Amino acid sequence: MENRDIFDRIMGLRILKPFYPIYHQHKEILLYLFFGGLTFIVSIGSYAFFEISIKLEPLIANIFSWIIAVLFAYITNRIWVFENTARGFADICKEISSFFGGRIVTLIMEEIILYISIEILSVNSIAVKVIGQIVVIVSNYFISKILVFRKRY
Length: 153
Hints:
With 153 residues, this protein is mainly α.
């Protein structure tokens, strides 16, 4: 019997069955967009909390929100989006290292966007964070697809 995850079972419901062929054909990207959207909410929400409630500087608030969002993204991407097959301590450590390494690259991109927009151009930090997150989500998909969760045969 085929191994079906919760999303396959949801899409198998009678009301959603007509959409199953599209879902099945584009499952990875649809789940990435879904979990990317949730990661976006986690990132923006935690950023707003750190910057507005705790009153951290925007670039510091961004680093703390990045930590939370990346942990969330790793778990969801590994389990549902890319259905990774890495097994064993060494393989998983390598996967985690490349995932966080790729995310550090996009953190630097986002920090530059935030710095220029907030400190130099005086743009609203939440608006800039939203724009930065769009750039980050797209970049992270390609990093994850090509470098981190590539199919190992």
